[in-house]
Amino acid sequence: MAKRKINKQQQRRINAQHRQRSRRARDDDNLPDSDALGPEQIGLVIESFGRQVNIEAKDGEVTRCHLRANVENPVAGDRVIWQMGDNTGVIVAVEPRRSLLTRPDFNGQPKSIAANIDQMLIVVAAQPPAYANLIDRYLVAAEAHQLTAVIVRNKSDLPVDDDTLAMLNSYADNGYTVLTASSTDGKGLDALRAQLADATSIFVGQSGVGKSSLVNALLPEANTAVGELSHAADKGRHTTTTARLFHFPDGGDLIDSPGIREFGVQNLDRKSVEQGFREFQPFISQCRFRDCRHESEPDCGLQAALERGDISPVRLQSYRQIVAEIEGQHG
Ligand code: GDP
Ligand code: ZN
After folding, report:
1. 45, 69, 96 — which closes off a domain?
2. With a 6 A CB cut-off, is 213 part of the ligand 1 pocket?
3. Ligand 1 touching residue 41 (CB < 6 A)
4. DSSP letter for each residue of 280-308
5. How far apart are CA 184 and CA 323, in angstroms?
6. Average pLDDT in the 9-21 region?
7. Closest ligand to the CA of 233
8. Domain contains 9
């Protein structure tokens, strides 16, 4: 067999993995044996600090847990099997996930940030103004992670121009739920609460659209970490703050962090961007070539749909812009 060449970067990564494994094995040596601990039970990860994790038991009690060496780091929203010790617990397994949000770390490798999310609330406002390409990016990310996408037009107490309303209506026409809300006058919050019940949600959107204000209006004061969250964002520590899970009083959970609020289309390929444009799907299947890029190929179903007026030029432009961007990133 030919000897595999390993470059410096790969060698560094392998060394780091070795170090991590031996560190985990050492940490695990300090953990009590399984039969010295309480019975196995299910827990919900509230917040993860790598090898130390805060989990919530069925009774609502939160316990700091360590991980057995063979257990990969869980993230907020994960369901785990754990055992209680004297003061802290031990996580022995992470349950299979129904969804996982990742973002590239500084090596470009996907890093898990939150698990078992069902729904993405895309918050837009009259100020700073909403624009289609940004909404489309979030919709692509939501579709790629199989999340239900909901658009929230926030700050509904402020006047909004007709173009913005028409744009939001076009999303409703394509089957997306569009809600309006204002944390200033409280309008629309009941409908929003109903949308959030029975699901685990994340809030995304541009800075300044009122996400913190909405979260503060929806969560009771006891959830003090919301204050910490906006505080951390002020200091520009965005990516280092870990995701945390909160319960809404009327049902449903929120997973939030400054990083999640900026969640986008990182690490997606062209096919998944394409699938993120819902109303394109029936036309794409009419393209002559399976790998059609919908640019100047003959018999392109999407071009034909555009000419007939069946799809919006704004959405096609948006699709092209996102593809150009991710292909620029990946080389
Ligand atoms: P975030 O960056 O998305 O978290 O936005 P913030 O919650 O920090 O809000 C940004 C600005 O918008 C603040 O000055 C808020 O007072 C204001 N704001 C938030 N919600 C509303 C709203 O419903 N109506 C109005 N008029 N202003 C709002
Ligand atoms: Zn095509």
Report:
1. 96
2. yes
3. no
4. GHHHHTT-SSTT--SSS-TT-HHHHHHHH
5. 37
6. 78
7. 1
8. no
Q: Which long-range contacts (CB under 8 A, 24 or more apart) does 217-226 make?
A: 217/183, 217/186, 217/189, 218/189, 218/192, 218/193, 218/248, 218/254, 219/246, 219/248, 219/249, 219/254, 220/249, 226/256
266 Cα to the center of ligand 2, angstroms: 24
Q: Is the CB of 200 under 6 A from ligand 1?
A: no
- Count of domains forming the chain: 3
Reply yes or no on whether the pLDDT at 222 is more than 70.
Answer: no
Greater confidence, 80 or 237? Answer: 80
277 CB neighbour count, 10 Å cutoff? 22
The continuous run of DSSP H or E covering 124 comes out as: strand 119-125
For the cut 60, the answer to whether the pLDDT of residue 238 exceeds it is no
Give the domain CATH number at 105.
3.40.50.300
> Per mean pLDDT, which range of 172-181, 221-230, 278-287, 310-319 is the poorest?
221-230
Angle at 97 between CA 95 and CA 278, to 5 degrees: 170
Per-residue pLDDT tens for 256-275?
A: 998 888 777 667 889 999 99
Range in 12-16, 73-77, 110-114, 258-262 with the lowest mean pLDDT: 12-16
The reply to whether the predicted model has a pTM over 0.90 is no
